[in-house]
Amino acid sequence: MREGVSNKATTLAAGSVVVAIAVLALKAAAWWLTGSVALLADALESVVNVAAAAAALIAVRYSALPADANHPYGHAKAEYFSAVLEGALIIVAALLILNEAWGAFLNPRAPEQAAIGLAVSAVASAANAAWAMLLTRRGRALKSPALLADARHLWSDVVTSVGVIAGVAMVTLTGILWLDPLLAALTAANILFSGFRLLRESLGGLMDEAVPPATMERIRRIVAKEAAGAIEAHDLRSRHAGRFTFLEFHLVVPGAMTVREAHEICDRIEAALKAELETAIITIHVEPEAKAKHEGVPVL
C-alpha cells in the first residue's frame, strides 16, 4: 500500500513540473507582449515554481526508498528538504522582483498590447489554480509535505497573479504608470511572506515537531479506551517524518500480568491507532506497575 502511495505522489510531482513549465511559458509570453514589470514579477515567480517542482519530484522519489541499514527509519524526511529549498527560492525570487520594481519605478513606461498579454496571463493563472486544487486535495490524502508545500506556493502564485492582472488593467485604463512597479513590489511582499511561512513549517518537520494538539488528543483517547487491563500510559511522544507519524509511549501493566496478555493489549492499541493514523509507526515499552507515574493517560 505504501508503494502505491509513493507512486501516486511521484506521478503528481512529475505533473507539477510539466504544469510549471507550461505556466512559465505563458507568463513569459504575457510579459514579452506587454513589457509590464508586474507581469515580469509574476513570470519570475514561475521560474521558482519550475525549480521547486523539480526539487519536489526528486524528494518524493527519494523519500519513497525503503528503509536500509543507514536509514532504518526510512527516507521520508527528504520531502522537508525540498520544502525548505522551495521556501529559500521563493525569498530569492521576491528579492529579484523588488529590484526590478525599483528600476521600473525610476523609469516607468506604459504596458503594450495589454489586452492580449492579460488574457494569456489569465489562462496561466487558471491552470495554476486548477493544479493547486488537485495538489492540495491529493497532498493531504497522501500526507506529503513536498506536495502540500508546492500547492501552497501555487495558491500564493494564483492570488498574486489575479492582483497583478487587475492592477495592470488599471494601469492601462488610467495611465497611472507608477501603479505597475507598485504592484510588482506588493507581489514581492506577498511572496516573501509565503516563503518565510513555508520555511518555518518545513524546519518544524526537520526538527521533529510533534503532531497538532487535536491529533494528540485523539491519540490519548484511543490509548485510554483500548488499553483495558493496563494501568496507565505515560511519556507519550510523537513526531512527523514526511507522511509518517512516529508514536512512542510507556504502558504500565500489573506485575502479575503475563507477557502474552501484555502483548495482546499492545496489539489492540496499535490496531486502533493505525485505523486512525494509517501511516503511524508505533513503539510501546511495557513496564510493571512499580514504574507507574500516576500521570499521562489513565486507562478507562
UniProtKB/TrEMBL annotation:
Enumerate the UniProt keywords alphabetically.
Answer: Membrane, Transmembrane, Transmembrane helix, Transport
Q: Does the keyword Transmembrane apply?
A: yes
A Pfam family annotated for this chain is Cation_efflux
Residue ranges occupied by any Cation efflux protein cytoplasmic domain in the UniProt entry:
212-289
> What InterPro entries does this protein's entry cite?
Cation_efflux (IPR002524), Cation_efflux_CTD (IPR027470), Cation_efflux_CTD_sf (IPR036837), Cation_efflux_TM (IPR058533), Cation_efflux_TMD_sf (IPR027469), CDF_Transporter (IPR050291)
Annotated ranges, domain Cation efflux protein transmembrane: 16-207
Compartments annotated for it: namely: Membrane
Membrane topology field: Multi-pass membrane protein
Q: Which domain of life is it from?
A: Bacteria
Where do transmembrane segments lie in this chain?
A: 12-33, 39-60, 80-102, 114-134, 154-176
Give the record's family classification.
Belongs to the cation diffusion facilitator (CDF) transporter (TC 2.A.4) family.
Q: What is this protein called?
A: Cation transporter
**Which species is this UniProt entry from?**
Roseomonas nitratireducens
Its taxonomic path starts at: Bacteria, Pseudomonadati, Pseudomonadota, Alphaproteobacteria, Acetobacterales
